Amino acid sequence: MMKNKNIDLSRKKNLKSLIEDYLEHNLLQLKDLHQKNPDQALDLFHNVFQLLCDPTDDADDLTPDQLKGAILEWHSLLTPVWKKIRGAFLDYYRNVLSERDNRLKMISAINDPSSPLAEYKDVFDEYALSSDEKTFSFKIPRSPITITLSFDSDKFIISMEGTRIIDRLLLQLKDTPIDIFSVCGHCGKIIIVTRKGKRFHSGCAAKANQKEKWQRDPEGCRQKERIRYRQRMKGI
Known about the structure:
Helix content is 56%, strand content 8%. The protein is mainly alpha-helical. The strands form 2 sheets. Strands 1-2-3 form a 3-stranded antiparallel beta sheet, with helices on one face. A two-stranded antiparallel ribbon has the order 4-5. The N and C termini lie far apart (46 Å).
């Protein structure tokens, strides 16, 4: 929906690197990326390091192995925090938004003279139908840190304390418009909407298209697979 246009493209790209390409992958996936596509992995690691490091540090001062080690170590540190934030966002995305939509429809119906509910307007008012924004509070495992966040005004509202790295992750999220976050229609991971109409995580669009083809014409897809198999067997 991209309602909030006051966040620039560079910040969207930074959040894509940090969330979609880094935190939404597990350690094995990051190691696999580094093994199969070292240049792509080091470019990602460099971007993430510059986003989270102390201002006096510079990724260019590290060797590739040092950079990889720092990024993988930070991933283990940030994962418990991200999982909590991720869970809160998914609850908001899947539950709070639908509840809010239903509440607004009820208010609209009560205030519509042609609606059957209009006769109950004196019984209900907007105050009775409204509800406070849901607040999520969680404690970081094996840490004294407690984080409280809500999505009031459709932005990340965060009360934060903690280590420097965790603080910087939260600062990257603070006041971020919610509508640049979404959920991949194929794998269910969180994505950053960097362009209008983006619905899939990197690499998932082709998989979703293939899945749709199999659902629409399974026999035709099986036949194509048989033909490709025979061609491979013949060395074509």
